[in-house]
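CDP-diacylglycerol--serine O-phosphatidyltransferase: structure, please.
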Amino acid sequence: MKRKKQPAHREIIMQTENENRETAGVAGKVQALRQNSIYLLPNSFTIAALFAAFFAITQSMHGRFESAAVSVFIAMVLDGMDGRVARLTNSQSAFGEQLDSLADMVSFGVAPALIVYNWHLYQFGKLGYCVAFVYCACAALRLALFNTLIGKVDKKWFIGIPSPTAAALVVGLVWLDYSYTDGMFQRASVWVVLLTLFAGLSMVAQVRFWSFKEINPRLKVPFIGMIGLLLFLMIFILEPALVLFAFFFGYSLSGYIMWAWRKFKTRRIAKTS
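Here you go.
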């Protein structure tokens, strides 16, 4: 028996469906390539931050501690940019979050610990090992805690100082010592130990610190505010090491000051009631 030929319109429909599938496949590949290209942008900043941290470690191994400290601050700037770029390009991903966390561990945990150890803590022998390791371990704990609390805590506050702030305290002291004090902090060695421990333990302290995430960039400020900002920028350009260390040290104290003030107010209210 001869098979009946399918109507011409059915052949046209089948051909159109095949063409649509091919077009959809090509469009899907193009979309995937576009997404991969977009995701490459924020991850490039993360990799650049990781390279800056690696460079800082190698510089400290060769005794170039000022260069090492500056490299950590560069890593800090790059780390702050990758998240903003991801949000602006709508390219946030689980891969990017994990890569950023690992890069942060190297940039603000391992690198500062090795820099301060190679700079000064090595003179204390086993105690120096312990102090540097305490800082490094606290950075790991802080980052792990931050990852588990994403979306569960008030964005207005950090619990413990962020790892970049702790890194800025440690390497900021190194940069400050080379820029202004002519080795004063190395001679007053106990301050290096205390500051490293303070920075490390503050990362895991159950104390709230303002996160600055509620600042509105579109907020209008009076003219005098712009003058103040310009003066701050001028001072920063002239004395970057001093300004950065003073800012991060003041910020690291702010949480404890607010904590003590709340305790004082609570006791005062309890006595009067």
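Notes: The mean pLDDT is 82.
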